[in-house]
Amino acid sequence: MKELVIAPSILSLDYANTSEQLKELNESNAKWMHFDVMDGHFVPNLTFGPDILKGFKKCSDLFMDVHIMVDNPEMISEIFVKAGADMVTFHLEAVKDIEACIALCRKIRAAGVKAGVSVKPKTAVDALLPYLSEMDLVLVMSVEPGFGGQSFMEDMLDKVRKLRKEIEANNYDTRIEIDGGINAETGKLAVEAGCDTLVAGSYIFKQNIKEAVDSLLCQK
Ligand SMILES: O=C(CO)[C@@H](O)[C@H](O)COP(=O)(O)O
Ligand SMILES: [Fe+2]
Question: Containing domain of residue 154, as a range?
Fold first, then answer.
């Protein structure tokens, strides 16, 4: 399994104290920053555009993990690739079919950016299994996408186990990320099931950032 990476979700950042929180985040052991893009249509919430990503990139060297929860990922992924995303993860539910999904992964990778595919809680991962070599990451949503601070859906770990089995059997390089309701306890369950990348928003930003990240890194 790959080295465990923590991706703090800045959806939960305290925007009244942005520079202080960013400084703390930069000094923590987090290697990624998780950037949630919501369009008010694919999900009932609205968040950040590309200029905000550019701004964060000026203040941080963290790997920019951009999760696009949008209806038109073909168009929006291009915008965030141009804005400097290191990874763009789009939703399987937002593309026409698996062929369109693979085509978009290839397009993102051709631009020199890592490509991820996400599934909502009600979507199975089975359709992705034959194509994992086309993806740098699969993101398993462990809450309904749209908001931070929801409770972890433990039954999503069956998808993680299935993905891990397939990745190990074929020696794929694909990461497994989980997003929604992650804290020290649920993070441990997720790592045991086979996740190597943990997104956490409210858990990290509602306490000392460095300590929270470290608590997620100490899963053994
Ligand atoms: O994509 C999303 C929500 O749709 C997330 O990335 C949230 O930001 C996670 O927040 P917590 O559940 O960790 O508070
Ligand atoms: Fe997310």
Answer: 5-217
* Residue 153 burial class via C-beta count within 10 angstroms: exposed 0-12, middle 13-18, buried 19 and up: middle
Element (H, E) at 214: helix 209-217
Ligand-binding site membership of 112 (annotated): no
**Distance between Cα 166 and ligand 1 center (Å):** 26
CA of 141 to the centre of ligand 2 (A): 8
When pLDDT is averaged across residues 171-199 and rounded to a whole number, the result is 98
Q: How would you class 219 by CB atoms within 10 Å of its CB: exposed for 0-12, middle for 13-18, buried for 19 or more? A: middle
CATH code, domain with 172: 3.20.20.70
Overall pTM > 0.95 = yes
The answer to whether residue 36 is catalytic is yes
Residues 36-52: pLDDT tens digits? 999 999 999 999 999 99
158 annotated active-site:
no
* Distances, alpha carbon 177 to alpha carbons 32, 75, 83, 140, 152, in Å: 12, 23, 23, 6, 14
Ligand 1 pocket member 182 (CB < 6 A): yes
CA atoms within a 13 Å half-sphere pointing along the CA-CB vector of 70:
23
What mean pLDDT, rounded, does the chain reach?
98
Domains identified in the chain, total number: 1
pLDDT of residue 1: 86
The answer to whether 194 is annotated as binding is no
Report the alpha-carbon distance of residue 150 to residue 91 in Å, rounded.
19
Q: How confident is the model at residue 219 (pLDDT cuts 50, 70, 90)?
A: low
